[in-house]
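User: My instructor asked us to take a sequence, write out its structure as tokens, and then describe one feature of it. I'm not sure where to start. Here is the sequence I was given:
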Amino acid sequence: MKFKNNDNMKKTYLLLAAAVLVFVCSVVGFVRNNAPNHSTSFFYKITSKAMIVEVTYNPDQAPQVEKYVDSCLQPEIVFGNKHKVNTDVQISSSQLKYQVKAAPGELKITADKNSNSASSLNKLKNIFDGLKNVIKPD
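Assistant: Let's start with the prediction itself. The structure tokens for your sequence are:
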């Protein structure tokens, strides 16, 4: 009889441990998705093949960022009324071809070095520098 009672206790502890684990995972997932995590970061990288700009910021600043990027890439409109984009921008008059991926709080612009002129690559660097004035750190 002692063994059977001991087995029931083991099962009870095992179920309790599983329930606590599920609860902790749920809390961590909830906090990760809903906590205000608006760290601002600016990342600029040049590889042998591409120039990459990545910025994370408070999503509340998305309208200012989107307006700034659209003004820099005229006559192309990247955002317009959209807040989430994954598009190629091509301006043939300046030999500019960028890939833009963005959602509120995140922006990534990639320029293939072989597909862009030196002035187009310099323009991307200027856009990056200008974003530092548009985005207010948290």
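For the description part of your assignment, you could build on this observation: The chain has two domains: 1-35, 41-134. Try explaining in your own words what that tells you about the chain.
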